[in-house]
Structures are given as structure tokens and as C-alpha cells.
Amino acid sequence: MESMQRxxxxxxxxxxxxxxxxxxxRNYEDAREQVRLIMDTLKLQKGSIILDLCCGEGRYTILFRxxxxxxxxxxxxxxxxxxxxxxxxxxxLVVADMxxxxxxxxxxxxxxxxxxxxxxxxxDEENEKMIDEVHRSLKPGGFFWLDFLNTHxxxxxxxxxxxxxxxxxxxxxxxxxxxxxxxxKDIFFQDSQREVTGRYKESVRLFTRNELEIMMKKTGFQxxxxxxxxxxxxxxxxxxRTILVGxxxx
Length: 250
Ligand SMILES: C[S@@+](CC[C@H](N)C(=O)[O-])C[C@H]1O[C@@H](n2cnc3c(N)ncnc32)[C@H](O)[C@@H]1O
What we know:
single chain; seven-stranded mixed sheet; four-stranded antiparallel sheet
């Protein structure tokens, strides 16, 4: 009988050097804007203990450190964590899965999930378990800041296909569709002859604001706020983002 090997999930493959090539011109101003919004909203005391879940190379993590907080960054991609340690040698960055946060309960004042780092798991129960993990790792009264896409905005503004010429020898084609309540992106890296040199998938569960709030409340969070963008405007159906602030009971 042939052995049935299960394919690794998309999020274990996509976050490598090619992802960094595609996003090398990412907008750092957005990151600074959101960090300002977080600071103004939560008014944390200096020295607060913060977890940046799915931190990537730590572009947000470093900003919280600059504000005088004690930050830990966690990411599943070894490549990103190695790059982050090279860029910011003093940052505390660890390789781990957001579904099993490797800390004792009640450790953090704030847990961050930034730039659509949620909804990656196949099953809703697995995504919900991540919120449970966040709740467990927070101190009583601690905050969970969830910066997620806005499902209505994605549905109304879906760009089915686009391409970017990254360099003379590298072109990236991205194809998008909505299927089974997920936004699915197929990503193709091509050389100067348009031969495909790399192929990836991204698949994010399209949770609505209501669904996110239900999951948070079920876990034991109070929903303390919701913004529609990094400037801090109130959320509506057309907002670009769904930014929810959960608070663990005291
Ligand atoms: C869209 S990127 C955002 C990175 C970072 N928050 C930023 O804004 O620069 C998503 C990140 O989630 C990480 N990731 C994916 N699945 C993960 C998992 N199961 N556990 C922890 N990190 C994961 C990826 O490696 C990647 O760095």
C-alpha cells in the first residue's frame, strides 16, 4: 500500500526568502502609525510585558522596545527569526507556533497579532484555540490587540490578479479568489523567460467582525474597542481593517 503523506500547511512554506523579496518595500509608516494608535489607546505603563505573535522579522517588535517595553517576538518561520536577530540583536525572538504559546499563564500585559496573522489554520476550532492561548498567556486585565482584514472590504474589492516586476529577472504574479469562506491567493515567482521558479499559496479564513467578537467573548475577553484603520477611525463595513481590542477580565 502506498504511504499517504500529508502536505505541509501553506503557512509553513510561504514565509521564506521569497516572501521577503515580495514585501521588501513594505510600508513601515503603517507600522509606526499602528504602534502610535496602540500606545494612545492602551496607555501602557513603561516596562509593560508584551508578546508580538507572528512577529516576522520583528518590524513591530522593535518599535515597542523603543517605547521602553519588555517585548518578546514569536514566529514559526526560522528564516524570519534568524533575520530578525541579525537586524535587531537585542530583541528576544523565538521560533514557536501561535497555537501553543510557550510561556506560563498570566505572563503578558499585551498580546499583539498584527498585519493579518490570524485565520491561518484550516479548522475554526484551531483558530479559536489560538485566541484561548492568548487569553491564557495574559495577566488579568491584559489586552489582546487583533489587527485583521475586513471581510466585507475584501469581498467588495477583490483584485483577481496582479503582477509586480521585482527586478529585471524576477516577476511575481498573484491570483486571488474567495472559496469556502477563505481568501485564497496563488503566488507565482517567474524568471525573465516567465518560467515559474517558485509557487506558493496563502489561505486566510474570512472571519467577520461579528465572528471574531463571538470567539473573543467565548474565550473570556470583553471587547473594549474596534477601529477600521491604523489612523484609529471607527469601524464600518467599508473599513480597510478590522482592529479589535480584547480585554481579559480582572
Ligand atoms: C503576514 S506576516 C506578518 C508578520 C509581522 N506581524 C509583520 O507585520 O511584519 C505573518 C507571519 O506569521 C507567521 N506565522 C505563520 N503561521 C504561524 C504559526 N502557526 N505560528 C507562528 N507564526 C506563524 C509567519 O511566519 C509570518 O511571519
